[in-house]
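DATA SHEET
Item: assembly model
Revision: 1
Owner: S.N.
Input lines:
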Amino acid sequence: MIDRLIEKIEELKNPSVVGLDPTIEMIPDVMREAAISEYGPTAQAVAEMFLRFNREIIDCIYDIVPAVKPQIAMYEKYGLHGVRAYLETTEYATSKGLLVIGDVKRGDISSTAEAYAGHLSGVEIDGVKYDLWNEDAITVNPYLGTDGILPFTEAIKDLDKMIFVLVKTSNPSSSEIQDLLAVAAGSSSGETDENADPIYVKVAKLTQMWGSELIGSYGFSKVGAVVGATHPAVGQHLRALFPQLFFLVPGYGAQGASAEDLRGFFDRHGRGCIVNSSRGIIAAWKKESIGFPVGDAARKAALQMQEELTKVL
Amino acid sequence: MIDRLIEKIEELKNPSVVGLDPTIEMIPDVMREAAISEYGPTAQAVAEMFLRFNREIIDCIYDIVPAVKPQIAMYEKYGLHGVRAYLETTEYATSKGLLVIGDVKRGDISSTAEAYAGHLSGVEIDGVKYDLWNEDAITVNPYLGTDGILPFTEAIKDLDKMIFVLVKTSNPSSSEIQDLLAVAAGSSSGETDENADPIYVKVAKLTQMWGSELIGSYGFSKVGAVVGATHPAVGQHLRALFPQLFFLVPGYGAQGASAEDLRGFFDRHGRGCIVNSSRGIIAAWKKESIGFPVGDAARKAALQMQEELTKVL
């Protein structure tokens, strides 16, 4: 979907993605109480309120943003009903023409990664094919190395889908492992800094390799990278080193990064990344300056974000 | 559950865990055809065959092994029905007194990891508490660092549950990132090898720190480590360096490691790890030397594995 994503971003002039990461606390009282009165204090009630909340947001933003990114953890927390709400959300978003980036951060050894790749490839059961997850892209974790990633690249090779590999995440502790300076195992002592790279650069190099045969019409690969907006210098550095890596950028807004921090994440054509905001959009109705109802507030916040981002392009 | 796990291992004299990782290919024809004829070629049929398969295995091994480890990818592949089969499997295993290690390899930034921690802590909805996943432990991915792990340690602090952090995985490509020699960012050049550690040692140090206040009666922590059986020297090295880390050990059997490879993973009391076998047990009915039916074959293979493991203790 890398070409489709770039074209949608340009058509809408909006390099942003709305993170559909609901929590009970984000749901307006009236919506929460309606679900609880209908289903009792159950996971089913939470699933219902998440779904109504997401649908209202999707209805108000589908024509101005290219994609949504539901974070599966928020749904998994509520067990089977939660997962159902995730699936109905991806299905509804797809039906509205939105691209869906499933933020699932899966990663495992080859035979298991093959099963996880079903998120994208679908499954075949006794000759019948199903796409059960309705995701155009998912995020994946690189810690297990190439044999844990190949099943995903194999799955998307002939599909209009993509993956985003976690390279440098937006959270403060990302430095603990991702910033360690690494040399190949077995290197002699007295290694100079020129040969040492932070782990995130090593991972970006692997990510580029994994996607090297999956380049679309605009020069970007179907294997993208997650790079946090909270690390402006890292983003700029990786943009220069890896022109083929399209970035999925979390950390904007609620996590602290501003549009100005993102200037270096784009290339000279104003391409190369899509920026996520979750709370800043979906919980915008709680801000006095924006106000009720949920969907209109999300639209206002999304348009505000678009304006801020396009200023730095 | 660290004390409970150790006591169950000693009571049954069996440091092994059965990986419940079904695939359609592992299901005997008669069981597969029955489900397809009842539900058609659907995900529901696959969920049903997985459940019947798992129940037959659980019925035949629950009195001789301390734990099962369902791999959620195998179920997620089949969407909502698949996740239901996972949940009914964890529920059934729990009802038979087995400890359940959910092999979910989740990991994300703090607010999201908090939601994933619901796997262990359960959820509270309008004052009512639910344990929706029936897992005594789960596996977690360390790539995001401390703030992605603290929500899990917080969740298990006052519960009889635990987590296993991926330290050194069993797959061939695990070397690509996990074996890189790393020094802290900002170290000067000319660093000697004495200060450089492979990433898996850095992660093991973090894992020890994360669990340092969660030590049970036998000196092991509720924060354990995944260390692949396919790396005997690494296992021995980590055992010596980190006496408080209990190891969950994949890679035995079908992936190539033997009992002899595992000698160094145990401490001098014969404690310190639990060894997983998946295909070797649950698909044992396919081996001519063992034969049909599924449950009896799994029991025979599990007893064989127990005998092999106890020889090296």
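QC remark: Chain A touches chain B through 82 residues (CB under 8 Å).
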